[in-house]
Amino acid sequence: MVDLDALTALDALQWLRTGEEVCRRFAMSPPTVSRKSRKCLDLFGLDLERIQGEWHTVGDVSILLLERRLHQAARWMGHRPLRLEATYWSGPLLCTPTPERWILGLSNIVGMPRNLQLVRDRIVDVCISGLPDVPAADDPELTSMALSSMPVFFVVQPGHPLIGHSGLSWSDIAQFPTLALPANSYPKVEESLESIGLWNDCVRMSRYRRDAWEGKSEAELTIGYGTHLSMEVSGGTLVRLPLNLPFASGEVMIVRKEFSAHPELLSLRQVILTRLKTFADRYPDIKLLQET
Known about the structure:
Strand order of the largest sheet: 4-3-5-10-6
Strand content: 15-25%
Oligomer: single chain
Structural class: alpha+beta
């Protein structure tokens, strides 16, 4: 069995991307992170490879996964802090200050595949993400616990031509560039946007109404997507358009099934729900989901 610090260094490096971020959250110096992670890789005959900015282990990881199972069990038993990842809005709004006994990640991962991989590989213990993209109901390893639901709406920069437009429709939105999301990053969101003709691809360029842009740049006219929580962290610069997208969002906790009833998870859930209530009291269309 590899020692706790060596596996922690390797896993934290894959989770947090840089030795500097690992040092901010764990009691290790940069040389220790490098030395310990290398020791762990050598022990299991593995290497690290950076793919699209993320570190991945290369080689047969079967023994490593068994070790991670033991180390994760030790964290849930209270021997080390648990690891929490979140979205760019839930990190600062719902996970700060960081709940007791938890370490919070960077809260900046775009898309579901990486988040699910981190939880599935037992590098991260819980991920707070957004509906509707969650693990499938028949996923053999992961489960999700919905905490809230809320509408998703279109947002624009001040001065956008659609501000004040009456009777806004999908065709009005389609005249302008919309936020490009990486393919397969949010499969259910992508499917829903495609159904109304708003998913970005090269064909969209022919539909931009340059005559309606009034000399503004594409960046100024790009239409994004938001919720009440994402607007809270946008710095107050975006304007909501009076048209909701055809799906709801909301906060959801993703965890491995064997820990779904663990007291530490239920305690975290209550902390997040309490913080969510602050926003639900301000925005009536945020609904708390007490039962999961």
